[in-house]
Design goal:
By secondary structure, this protein is an alpha+beta fold. The protein has one domain: Ubiquitin-like (UB roll), CATH 3.10.20.30. It contains 2 helices and 5 strands, in the order E-E-H-E-H-E-E. The protein has a 5-stranded mixed sheet, with no helix packed on it. A hairpin with a 2-residue loop joins strand 1 (about 5-10) and strand 2 (about 10-15).
Length: about 100
């Protein structure tokens, strides 16, 4: 099972999640409660995270991420609502 480490406001939250889990779905059902999110459909960017480690296991950014994040993708930013986690990952979210 993948381990997710979230850095947020000087705190670090670490949790094991089920393989192929979406963090925004988990946040919505209170199983990953610290993640900030909005629409869950790639339209608002409230779930933007910076991938610090484990990004090589993620798929390439989709068209929604490319449209909403633009050049920020090259700096490691992704939309959590568009990611399904298969391997350990470390992310940071600014709030």
């Amino acid at each position: 099972m993948p381990n997710v480490k979230l850095h947020q406001n000087g705190q670090v939250y670490e949790q094991e999640i089920g393989a192929n889990s979406n963090l925004v779905v988990l946040a919505g059902i209170k199983k990953f409660p610290h993640l900030k999110y909005g629409c869950g459909m790639g339209k608002c960017t409230k779930c933007t995270v910076k991938v610090l480690a484990g990004g090589e296991s993620l798929p390439e950014p989709n068209w929604k991420e490319n449209k909403m994040l633009g050049e920020k993708i090259t700096q490691g930013y992704r939309l959590a609502c568009q990611l399904y986690i298969h391997e350990d990952i470390e992310i940071c979210q600014e709030t």
